[in-house]
User: Which sequence fits this backbone?
């Protein structure tokens, strides 16, 4: 498999952590795409992924998966152990539910703030090939949403070891990436968020978090 | 199972179609939540789903799935036949990839337009409990994104029977709901989009599309 990655960007980190948890990271051919150099906008990369985003996982049969979600699901089906999406049907539903929530309420909020406020992203206020202008009010709204996300995260974790219960899952992966991504806009877990901080310590000390 | 539904809203239609395709719609207890009457904002419903959205699927053990994505994944794991997420690992990856794309580029674009422009949604520009004000520029951007989505849909379908290939999947379900939802903002598949129109005819004539 070929893995189009960017070592400094949050989205591909989700796939990288999942690959590491599955014990696959050393088996894939990693291709670094420098977002700083705007390599994802090049014609060469557009031929790989017309949406101009990383991560991309290219399977040995040439199939390309162009989203973190697609990559998670392929990996789970092709390499079931260790499971990252729960074992029972109910667990699978809960994990998918929570992972979706982390992306929607968390990842998109931080991204919305960054993309609509950072000068270097003028004219690129959404991911992908279309040149949307920044909307400063949306940047503010993204910040407010991200702030609420981190404030509510403690209650979402509660006294469970992991987000979905007593097992680690892709919901924890996405949540970890969101919490670290939020630091880019200077939003952090509250000091008194004991459950969230205990969870953060546990997931960020796994070897996969450092890859 | 209990299924909290709203017969006029696009999101729960995704789950409703999936339940119908699995042959389960007549086996669940359906509870209609009138979004027109703002029943989803009531304390009674907040106790079911603090995010104040439908659909919700409540399993017999009390577990509640609060998103279309969570519901899709539970149904597929608990009731594998007929498969709606592909059979091979590569198919599962591709389906998850496309379904995510339909939601992100399609559903969210139409929703963004509606919620930020329709007078009745003032102060409720995002789903959920938080009272965000409308951003008219975001409404316009949502419209532009939705327009691009329908224009590109023909190429995405191509000459395949269904979005992911020769089998029907949750990507088709979400895409059908998006295309119909886009009519609310007067955006339609282009007249000359032959592949998209052939696909639309096929998926919207399935019995599940009418439930």
Assistant:
């Amino acid at each position: 498999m070929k893995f189009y990655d960017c070592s400094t960007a949050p989205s591909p980190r989700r796939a990288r952590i999942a690959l590491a948890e599955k014990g696959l990271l050393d088996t894939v051919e990693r291709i670094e795409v420098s977002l700083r150099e705007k390599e994802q906008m090049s014609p060469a990369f557009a031929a790989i992924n017309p949406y101009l985003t990383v991560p991309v996982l290219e399977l040995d049969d040439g199939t390309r998966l162009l989203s973190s979600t697609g990559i998670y699901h392929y990996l789970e089906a092709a390499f079931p152990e260790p499971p990252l999406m729960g074992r029972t049907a109910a667990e699978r539903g809960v994990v998918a539910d929570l992972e979706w929530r982390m992306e929607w309420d968390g990842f998109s909020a931080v991204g919305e703030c960054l993309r609509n406020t950072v000068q270097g992203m003028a004219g690129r206020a959404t991911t992908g090939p279309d040149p949307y202008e920044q909307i400063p009010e949306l940047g503010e709204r993204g910040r407010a949403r991200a702030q609420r996300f981190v404030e509510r995260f403690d209650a979402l974790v509660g006294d469970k070891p992991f987000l979905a219960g007593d097992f680690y899952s892709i919901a924890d992966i996405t949540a970890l990436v969101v919490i670290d991504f939020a630091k880019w806009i200077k939003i952090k877990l509250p000091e008194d968020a004991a459950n969230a901080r205990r969870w953060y310590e546990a997931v960020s000390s796994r070897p996969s978090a450092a890859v």
Remarks:
- Strands of chain B lie at 2-5, 29-32, 56-58, 64-65.
- The radius of gyration of chain B is 17 Å.
- The first helix of chain B runs from residue 10 to 21.
